[in-house]
Amino acid sequence: MRAIVLTGPGPAGNLRVQVRPVPEPPPGWVRIRVHAFGLNRSELHLRLGFAENARFPIVPGIEATGVVDLDPDGVLPPGRQVAAMMGGMGRAFDGGYAEYVVVPRAQVIPFRSALPREVLGAVPETLQTAYGSLTTGLDLRAGQTLLIRGGTSALGYAAAALAKDRGATVLATTRQPARLAELAEHGVDHPILDDGAVAARVREIVPDGVHAALELVGTPTLPDTLAATRVHGTVCFAGMLADEWIVKDFYPIAYLPTGVRLTSYSGDATDLPAEVLQRTLDRLADGSLSLGPITPYPLDRIAAAHHDIETGAVSGKVIGVIPDAG
């Protein structure tokens, strides 16, 4: 099989296509023939040397979609459509940037869909994080206001769509003026140009501050996001687009506005109910839901895809697509 192998931390050129043996699944694991895989900030952090407990060389990729190729225990039949994510993929063992991947069965979610493979590949991890952030992280309710800091990321688009579907009013930020229209076209009620300080602009729209805020940029913007949130409101830290996630010399009384709650969200495959994945795929198919733009890349251009993510050249979800052989 062909796989993308990261030889060690460094530039995008360290991601190289190699030919490797097709992996064999031990009991309790499943081999998946990969059709598509999402590219995530997690893999960028791995390549840049930010990841802890990573081994090299490794096939990156914390998610993949495709079909079951082999389940040695006979639980999942060959050809069954599945998504796999997290649980050590691309860190503790080889991940989804390959034509085949072997994963623990607990990390596999079956589904049925005739959507194109690049669309299926865009959904699992982004949906899991957006769904978990809005429910577990924020307990978002109909009629509430939500600020998404980092709105043109894949997670930002997905969170906006799910929040609108829950009946919330959505404010979302972008650093690029040209992308304000993209946010509006995606259904965001109040697109906001982010110059690093948006709390005053948010409070012009929502004088008391938003009920909930999803922080996807990182610690550099977190104090301003907290300042945009009302008393008894909640900020959920779920992303690190700025590659900064440590608050230095954290003094809670000075850092946190009075009465504003700060939570976080980081989930796993078991945190995405199969019925939520299936319902989302069905709604994507009938056109009643969109999770934002998708940019596909073939396997031999994954290094270029990493470069485009790192430089902000693309918005929404970046996907690696593997066609059937022949």
Automatic annotation (TrEMBL):
The keyword Lipid metabolism does not apply. It comes from the Bacteria. Residues 10-320 form the Enoyl reductase (ER) domain. The keyword Transmembrane does not apply. Keywords: NADP, Oxidoreductase. This is NADPH:quinone reductase.
